[in-house]
Specification:
With about 350 residues, this protein is an alpha+beta fold. The chain folds into three domains: about 45-160, Immunoglobulin-like; about 170-255, Roll (Mannose-Binding Protein A, Chain A), CATH 3.10.100.10; about 260-355, Roll (Mannose-Binding Protein A, Chain A), CATH 3.10.100.10. The protein has helices at about 1-20, 175-185, 195-200, 275-285, 290-300, 355; strands at about 25, 35-40, 45, 50-55, 60-65, 65-70, 80-85, 95-100, 105, 115, 125-130, 135-145, 150-160, 160-165, 190, 210, 215-220, 235-240, 250-255, 260-265, 285-290, 310, 315-320, 335, 345-355. The longest helix has 17 residues, at about 1-20. The radius of gyration is 27 Å and the shape is elongated.
Length: about 350
C-alpha cells in the first residue's frame, strides 16, 4: 500500500512540474549516465537576423538562425536543429536538414548542398550551395531542447526576370502541366505571385493571362485599356483565381535567374534557317540559346542587340535595353517575331555555359 501511494505522489509531482510555465527539460546524455531529468526557469529563444534573403541561381547563400538561453547557461548544449522548406508555389513542407552537434543529415534535392554553419555558440544558420531555380520559398529553423521547441523563418527569394510565354500555335494552349514543362524547356521555372507582382511594379504590362506556380491564372496591367479588361479598372495584377489544372488552357509566366554562361549573337556571313542556325552554334562550341537564357541576358547582363535571331524553341527574338529608331517598340524588352517557318532566314543567339567559356 505504501509503495502504491509513493508512486501516485511521484506522478502528481511530475504533472505539477509540467504545469509550471517556462520549465526546462534537461536530458544529461553526456552527464553521469543516469539521464537525470531536471526542471528550471531557463527559457530557449530562436531568432533570425533578417526575414528575407535575396540571391541568384548558382550562388552560395546563408540563411541566418541563432538560439540562446535566458538566463545564460554555464555549460554548452547540443539541441536538435531542424530546417524545413515551404515551396513558394505552396504544397507540403519538406525536410531540408536535421543536426545535433556536429552530426547532421540532409534530405532530397538538398542532400550534399546544405550544412549548419556553427561559427559561434548558438549559430544554427543554414549554408546552401549552388542554388537552384526551385529553391525559392520559406525556410523554417526549429530548435528543440528536451520539451522546449522554438522556431523562426527566413524567406529565400531569387533575383531574376519574369517573362510571358505562349505555345507555338498561339495564345491559350497550355494546361498547367504543359506550362510547367514549357518553362523548364526554356531554362526557367513557373513564376510565383510575388515574382510577378515585383515585375509588375517594375513595369511589366501584359494583356494575356498566364499560369503561376500556385495554380492561379493572372496577368499584370500597368496601363489599363479596353481589350485588357477595360480601361475603368485600376492598374494591378489581375487574377482569374485557381483554374482546373488539366482542363483549362492559358499562357504561362516563367521565371529565369542568373546565367551560368554567356548569351551572344552569332555574326554570320549570311542569315540561316533554323537547322543551319543550330549547326552554326554547335560549330562555335555552343548551343542555340533558350528563351529564359535570352531574357536573363537582357535583364541581368544588359544584352542589347537590334538583330533578330533564332532561339531553341523555334521562335525569333531580339533583346533591347536602349530603345531607338528602327529597333522595334519604344520600350525596353525582348521583342518577338513569333514562330516563323523553320526555313526562314535569320541570325541566331547562342549560349555557352561557364565550362565551355574556360
Amino acid at each position: 500500500m505504501m509503495i502504491c501511494c509513493i508512486q501516485i505522489l511521484l506522478l502528481l509531482g511530475v504533472q505539477l512540474a509540467l504545469s509550471i510555465p517556462n520549465f526546462f527539460y534537461h536530458d544529461f546524455r553526456k552527464g553521469n549516465g543516469n539521464k537525470e531529468i531536471h526542471f528550471s526557469g531557463v527559457k530557449l529563444h530562436v531568432d533570425s537576423a533578417q526575414p528575407a534573403v535575396f540571391a541568384a541561381t548558382g550562388d552560395n547563400v546563408t540563411l541566418p538562425c541563432r538560439f540562446w538561453y535566458e538566463p545564460e547557461l554555464t555549460s554548452p548544449r547540443e539541441p536538435r536543429v531542424k530546417w524545413s522548406w515551404q515551396p513558394a508555389a505552396g504544397g507540403h513542407e519538406t525536410d531540408v536538414l536535421v543536426a545535433i552537434g556536429s552530426r547532421s543529415r540532409s534530405f532530397g534535392e538538398f542532400r550534399g548542398r546544405v550544412q549548419i554553419r556553427q561559427d559561434f555558440p548558438g549559430d544554427a544558420a543554414l549554408v546552401m550551395t549552388n542554388l537552384m531555380l526551385n529553391d525559392t520559398g520559406r525556410y523554417h529553423c526549429e530548435v528543440v531542447d528536451g520539451l522546449e521547441d522554438k522556431s523562426t523563418s527566413v524567406y529565400l527569394e531569387l533575383r531574376g526576370v519574369v517573362f510571358p510565354y505562349q505555345h507555338p500555335r498561339g495564345h491559350y494552349h497550355l494546361s498547367f502541366l504543359a506550362a510547367q514543362q514549357a518553362c523548364e524547356q526554356q531554362a526557367s521555372t513557373l513564376a510565383t505571385f510575388s515574382q510577378l507582382f515585383q515585375s509588375w511594379k517594375e513595369g511589366l504590362n501584359w494583356c494575356n493571362a498566364g499560369w503561376l506556380a500556385d495554380g492561379t491564372v493572372q496577368y499584370p496591367m500597368t496601363r489599363p485599356r479596353v481589350p485588357c479588361g477595360g480601361d475603368g479598372l485600376a492598374p494591378g495584377v489581375r487574377s482569374y483565381g485557381r483554374r482546373h489544372l488539366q482542363l483549362h488552357r492559358y499562357d504561362v509566366f516563367c521565371f529565369s535567374s542568373t546565367l551560368q554562361g554567356k548569351v551572344y549573337y552569332l555574326q554570320p556571313s549570311h542569315t540561316m534557317n533554323l537547322t543551319e542556325a543550330q549547326q552554326a552554334c554547335q560549330e562555335d562550341g555552343a548551343q542555340v540559346a533558350k528563351v529564359g537564357q535570352l531574357y536573363a541576358a537582357w535583364k541581368l547582363s544588359v544584352l542589347d542587340r537590334c538583330d533578330a535571331g533564332w532561339l531553341a524553341d523555334g521562335s525569333v527574338r531580339y533583346p533591347i535595353t536602349r530603345p531607338r529608331r528602327n529597333c522595334g517598340p519604344s520600350e525596353p524588352g525582348v521583342h518577338s517575331f513569333g514562330f516563323p517557318p523553320p526555313q526562314h532566314k535569320h541570325g541566331v543567339y547562342c549560349y555557352k555555359s561557364g565550362d565551355e567559356l574556360m
